[in-house]
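quick one before i forget lol
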Amino acid sequence: MSAPENSRPSLRIPPWLRVKLPCGPAFSDTRALADHLHLHTVCHSARCPNKFECFSRKTATFLILGDTCTRNCAFCNIGKGATRAPNPEEPIRVGKATALLGLRHAVVTSVTRDDLPDGGSAHFASTIRAIQGSNAVCPTIEVLIPDFQGDKTALQTVINAAPHIINHNVETPFAHYARIRPQADYRQSLELLRRVKEAGRISKSGLMVGLGETDEEVYETLADLAAIGCDIVTIGQYMRPSQRHPHVERYVHPDVFKLYEKRGRELGIPFVFSAPLVRSSYNAEQVHAALVNRRQKQ
């Protein structure tokens, strides 16, 4: 009989994943602002390893629609359970926070709300408009959205609000969905991204490695994303948030991440940001600027 999952010995964290934890006035100010405005950030809720760096640069990824998710993805640290009705004041608070932080690139994501008729798409649209209306110089806006259970109208609601980038993560290769994302549909996610691209928006997606996938499966996923015209792909290392979560099956060497980036570009994806500590919204402003700069040169 095999040992229980949580009794397995964990792999030793390699040196390239050991990060310094900067903590100065800017870090404290960013955290205090989010607390003062009663806002959630995915940086905190998902235990992102880049939180200290990003907060210290006075940037954060806002998490809307509460802090309780209706799904049970194996990798995620966001809480599950009873949800609350969306707070109609939340979009205004997010808009105010982006203005006070002086963000030039605002990133907004959410928990998945399958309990809402529109999946929360109208709340996303309200948040986008609030950011647009709260800043003297409107930042570029990136949203990381759920799949809205394939609802075309819900997706169109977000598209119509005109964010600059629409991100939806496939998270892991198709073969691992039943284990890692049991309530999601890989093909449905690809179709969402195809529609985003068809609508003329910059499309973005991301995945994690270290959950049992092979390099070949990562390459197959990149080929799928290239086939639907995805503009930006991020690839990062899965880090186990707690003892309740799946073990890290492998720590991918930085050189292999470079190979992922090389393959993605060879497949025709304009921008692939691949490194151990990369996350969907990590350095999102720089990634967007790099894509725009490349397009201008072309």
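fyi The mean pLDDT is 85.
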